Amino acid sequence: MDFEDYKAEHPNAKFSDYYVEKLAEVLRDGEAHGALGKDLYRKGELISFEEAGQDEFDKYCKWFDLTPDTKVIDLGCGSLRVGLHFIRWLNSGNYFGMDLTMDFIDMGRPRVNEIIGTEWQAELGTIADKLEQAVDFGADFVFSSNVAYHVHPDECATYFDQLDRAASKPGATLCFDTRIAKEQVRFGDRNWAFPFEFQEEALPNFKLVRTIPAREKMEELLETNEVVRVIFHFERA
């Protein structure tokens, strides 16, 4: 079922509703997924849950000079693939994970318990229920991994507003990965890429510090690739 079919059956649904249902179906069917579920895969091969998010966690710590005292919000935390490492490393209670549904979070919670035990503390919940609490949490670092390029164009304003509010503390750091193209393009069933400038315009309360790769390299890659993966680093103005 594609979004148009889903919309016909659920007239008031948003694309995010379809996205959650589609992913839940994929996971229920046991299909390989690299970022969601209790079992994670890389290049079609099952990998340990702990290994799946280790590299990304290590890069965040290095790039942003994070410490255990840092208060972190994971917007779109999924099954805690990266969250596991923050929960284990940060001071108790300094991790706040949110996603569209508790179904994804609940898939990963048993894996976290297996790896670090059950005596951990973190704030977990849906964006709908927890965003106001997350604002009061006062995060120093907000990241959103493997989320932005899945957001439907009609829902981008909502997504960027959520990022803005989650990273509302003065001086907060915001990091997310997305896909860049010369002009807006849809690729695959649930993915979009936007021009570079789209990100800056969507976050007027932030200053763009850097991108990975740098913009010059990004533009070079766009000469031979329709879509390029880019990591954005913003700081609250």
From TrEMBL:
Family annotation (Gene3D superfamilies): Vaccinia Virus protein VP39
Spans traversing the lipid bilayer: none
Domain of life according to the entry: Bacteria
Pfam families referenced in this protein's UniProt entry, alphabetically: Methyltransf_25
Cited InterPro entries: Methyltransf_25 (IPR041698), SAM-dependent_MTases_sf (IPR029063)
Listed SUPFAM superfamilies: S-adenosyl-L-methionine-dependent methyltransferases
Stretches assigned to the Methyltransferase domain: 72-167
UniProt-recorded name of the protein: Methyltransferase domain-containing protein
